[in-house]
Specification:
Elements (H helix, E strand, L loop, with lengths): L3 E2 L2 E4 L13 E6 L4 E6 L9 E8 L2 E2 L6 E6 L2 E6 L8 E9 L4 E2 L2 E8 L10 E6 L4 E5 L2 H7 L2 E6 L2 E3 L6 E2 L7 E6 L5 E6 L7 E8 L5 E11 L7 E8 L5 E6 L10 E6 L2 E3 L8 E6 L2 E6 L4 H4 L1 E8 L4 E11 L3 H4 L14 E7 L5 H5 L3 E7 L5
Parallel strand pairs: 1-10, 3-11, 12-20, 21-28
Antiparallel strand pairs: 2-4, 4-8, 5-6, 5-9, 7-8, 9-11, 13-18, 14-15, 14-19, 16-17, 17-18, 19-20, 22-26, 23-24, 23-27, 25-26, 27-28, 29-30
């Protein structure tokens, strides 16, 4: 007496044993992917009893070659169709030939082919980073990537950036660097380092399907500019009668902070030795920077002076709020005496006396003498 067994059908991703009343199975494959059809006869005790399995499509036997591959494992026999196209849709049969008196039923697949059914893209993720810091973007699409042979790539503001295992600038105008890699769980990563504000923007993790469709995950990266500390402030009040005032700025405490440059400013304008020759002089002694003002004048020299050191991500400054008061000599000194007669050197003299309290402490003298040449018409 002959015994009849119905084949059970499955795809490689999930083995499916059909119930006894099933005659066929429908399978969908995206364009451009590799399709695997699998027939299994569970009730065959010895797998070697299945001598061979003939695969047919539209009445023609499929031969192994560039498009088709056969494989087997136990009672399971598989057909691999490479790079599925629309022309591959239709009905496929797997017909076993056995060496025993068992009679095994053919398996049947109705194959449809079309564009892959992409999932809905997740909402854009907002990533907030700080200037000079690091950050990582990752997307987990490993299952689909492996199943459909997807090509993954990253873009920045719509421009494709190449894969790189070493630190690479995101674009020419930015110090931000990136590297790409996949971890052992199949997740794809973009690691950002040395982030600057020019590295902010829209980063996209993209997966390209064989049918040219693209699934993307969006990351909106914001970079907060680092702000330096508030100016250290010193208030300086000086009288024109002092004649000279020096502003000193010691940068030695920033020696290891990476100073790229320093400068002096007055009321927001850069000061140099050419700003007011003979009256403003810039001096340096190592990390000690000095701005020296001579012939003090209330109108010319009052203002905000800043000694600014440029660090990698922000400047730091020592600020001097300088107030130059007008001379008090006309108030503190008695009127000038008459000019003396001319001496043998052709010079003449006059003097005046400080009559205010504390003259000696404030001016350092009590009597002031003025000299002139006799031919100066004074």
């Amino acid at each position: 007496m002959r015994t009849f067994f119905l084949a059970s059908l499955a795809v490689v991703a999930a083995l499916l044993v059909l119930p006894s009343d099933a005659q066929s199975q429908s399978r969908f494959f995206p364009l451009g992917t590799d399709a695997t059809l699998e027939c299994t006869w569970d009730d065959v005790e010895n797998p070697d009893d299945i001598k061979l399995v003939k695969w047919t499509y539209k009445g023609k036997r499929l031969r192994e070659g560039k498009r088709y591959e056969y494989s087997r494992e136990g009672n399971s026999h598989r057909l691999l169709i490479k790079n599925v196209q629309k022309k591959d849709k239709g009905t496929y049969f797997c017909s076993p030939k056995v060496t025993t008196d068992q009679e095994l039923a053919d398996g049947q697949f109705v194959v449809s082919v079309g564009k892959a059914k992409l999932p809905n893209a997740p909402d854009p993720r907002e990533i907030n980073l700080s200037e000079g810091g690091t950050g990582s973007l990752n997307c987990n699409y490993a299952e689909a990537k492996e199943r459909y042979g997807l090509k993954q790539y990253w873009t920045y503001n719509g421009e494709k950036i190449r894969d790189s295992e070493s630190a690479t600038p995101v674009h020419e105008g930015s110090e931000t660097q990136y590297r790409t890699y996949s971890d052992d769980q199949g997740r794809d990563w973009l690691a950002l380092s040395n982030v600057d504000v020019d590295g902010a923007g829209t980063y996209m993790c993209n997966y390209k399907y064989p049918d040219k469709q693209i699934f993307s995950m969006q990351f909106d990266v914001n970079v907060a500019e680092l702000r330096g500390p508030a100016d250290v402030v010193r208030n300086v009040t000086v009288n024109e009668d002092r004649y000279t005032q020096s502003l000193s700025c010691d940068l030695s405490g920033l020696a290891d902070a990476g100073i790229s440059s320093y400068r002096w400013e007055k009321d927001g304008e850069v000061v140099s030795n050419e700003t007011d020759p003979g009256r403003i002089t810039l001096l340096e002694d190592g990390m000690q920077k000095t701005l020296e003002i001579d012939d003090l004048n209330s109108e010319d020299h009052s203002g905000v002076y800043r000694c600014i050191a440029e660090l990698p991500y922000y400047p730091v400054a020592l600020r001097f709020n300088v107030v130059v008061e007008p001379s008090q000599k006309e108030r503190d000194f008695a009127p000038w005496s008459q000019w003396s007669s001319c001496d043998r050197q052709g010079k003449k003299y006059r003097f005046r006396t400080c009559v205010a309290d504390g003259c000696s402490d404030y001016y350092g003298f009590v009597y002031e003498v003025e000299t002139a040449m006799c031919n100066e018409g004074m």
